[in-house]
Design goal:
Two copies of one chain form a homodimer.
Chain A (H helix, E strand, L loop, with lengths): L2 E5 L3 H12 L3 E6 L2 H7 L5 E4 L5 H6 L7 E4 L5 H13 L5 E4 L3 H9 L4 E3 L1 H14 L3 E8 L2 E7 L9 H4 L1 H5 L1 E13 L5 E9 L12 E7 H5 L5
Parallel strand pairs in A: 1-2, 1-4, 2-3, 4-5, 5-6
Antiparallel strand pairs in A: 7-8, 8-11, 9-10, 9-11
The structure holds adenosine-5'-triphosphate (ATP) (2 copies).
């Protein structure tokens, strides 16, 4: 049975505590503000009002006896740092810490954070990718310089088979899936559309107008794909 | 040349404004707090201190003459609602609005938001997936009940070829890529590891211990994969 400590019950922390609990894990939720602690009390295993920079209190409440601790403190950087140092010294196996800037992220990693989370940054980056390249519906970086993207099928691809397009040979990318909207006529004659996924599509699949192509490859290879 | 309005320069809005600008777009950045406006002035096309619920000011500054507007206001829900209604009436082609709860998201969609962003929620959900299933390194929901996941290759898969595993037939999932750590010996004999991606891997690829498998399929099919 997985056991987690979530320290800092802002929007990120309280949502994470609740989701982990719903997923069946044991969750110790901590905040120094009593109303926030009361707010989550019914949705977690144990809700504790305390200052996470108080090492005595951390030990007394067993906050360190968990598989992973997530520090969701946002603005109060010193509290996030001190909490991380304490958890590291108490040998918590995995410490995930929120950082609000890249400099803070670098510091937190050096003092023991195994993973960094920066919700506002992550959403800003995802939205910049979506907006910057209009045919680009989504982009997920998988590794340095290597991504999976969702793009609207360029017009020049429509009507061709994957084999004819020779994506791997010509563009050095791979299609991992195609999302296609199919129209169905319901029992009362009502038309409704729904998405079908063809994952790892066959070479004889023909690209249709409106298809969304899931493509994986190096970022420069993706950038070289035709826009239309 | 793409042109955007970013209204609300908290951590999300200011980061997005900066990234869009760096990507070459024209960015109008708006906030009612002067220090935040000054803070981004050098990094965007135009930084304007104004109240986004003031329709006169929106028109006067041409905030509505953009390809898309992103409302990054967090706590002040009424301001987010009124700003969205104004932008909708001024026919901004795409309006992306931040919501801090699901109820607010539903309201914003009804009054004209085309897209919703909730950074804290999105990160909390991503981290819950990562933590809840220890073999699960990452999960991205592609559509209702259909995801792409990254999982550590189960021990029972190691040494077998993709063809032998018959994933599509046995488990109704597809492998879209394999991330493998390869060790290289540098010029001075120093060992360093780096990631290699095999995307849309061939049927004769043999799974190695430590491989990360990118798998696409229905959520229940993914949940049925062996843990080891
Ligand atoms: N030393 C501490 N011990 C316990 N809780 C703390 C401590 N310092 C800060 N917190 C709590 O951390 C929570 C989150 O921090 P903060 O409000 O700064 O982040 P936020 O960026 O507004 O959060 P979100 O964006 O998730 O809503 C707050 O509820 C705060 O009370
Ligand atoms: N009517 C308004 N007109 C212009 N700006 C506004 C208005 N209302 C709020 N803002 C600005 O929106 C910005 C972001 O809102 P807020 O601080 O509530 O969000 P936040 O959740 O703290 O942001 P983040 O998590 O991105 O740091 C603030 O800088 C605030 O000044």
């Amino acid at each position: 049975m997985e056991r987690f400590a979530v320290i800092g019950l802002g929007r990120f922390g309280s949502r994470l505590a609740e989701l982990l609990s719903m997923g069946g894990a044991e969750v110790l939720a901590v905040d120094k503000e009593r109303p926030l602690v009361e707010e989550v009390r019914d949705r977690v295993t144990l809700a504790i009002c305390m200052d996470s920079t108080d090492e005595e209190a951390i030990r007394a409440q067993g906050i360190d006896k968990v598989d992973a601790a997530i520090v969701g403190i946002g603005d109060n950087f010193e509290a996030a740092v001190l909490t991380t140092v304490i958890l590291k010294q108490l040998e918590v196996p995995r410490i995930i810490v929120r950082a609000t800037t890249d400099v803070r992220a670098a510091i937190l990693r050096r003092i023991g954070a195994d993973d960094i989370v920066n919700p506002e940054n992550e959403s800003a980056e995802r939205w910049q990718s979506k907006l910057a390249a209009p045919g680009l519906i989504d982009r997920r970086e998988l590794a340095e310089g290597f991504s999976q993207v969702q793009i609207a099928a360029p017009e020049s691809f429509v009507g061709k088979t994957l084999e004819q397009l020779e994506l791997r040979k010509k563009y050095r990318v791979n299609i991992t899936a195609i999302k296609r909207q199919t129209e169905e006529t319901g029992s009362k004659g009502a038309k409704k559309t729904r998405d079908t996924f063809l994952s790892v599509p066959m070479p004889d699949v023909v690209i249709q107008s409106g298809d969304v192509l899931f493509i994986m490859g190096a970022d420069d290879a993706i950038a070289a794909l035709p826009a239309e």
